[in-house]
Write a structure and sequence with these properties.
The protein is built from four helices and no strands. The chain starts with a helix and ends in a 13-residue tail after the last helix. It has about 100 residues and is mostly helical.
Amino acid sequence: MSEHEVQREVSELQAKSATAARIFDLRRIIGGLFVLYGIIVTIAGINPSDSSLDKSEGININLWTGLGMLILGIFFLLWLKLKPVTPVEVETPEE
């Protein structure tokens, strides 16, 4: 293998590594799940039943919990957007 081929292969692996780091960032996973569950719980809280309101002493727990989950999920996704993962620079050994 020539030096040029090795450099090309190293740069391809670095690009794949940076892509994998962005895809599997925990902020994306946690934020996405909180937004998804927040939507589901908020929808459940829009029309509460009388029995669920009686259990929670008149407070619409599903609505408030769903909105809180939505806010937290959006926070995580905004954090990811504003401060993305920086790829780790790998130094190549020189001969």
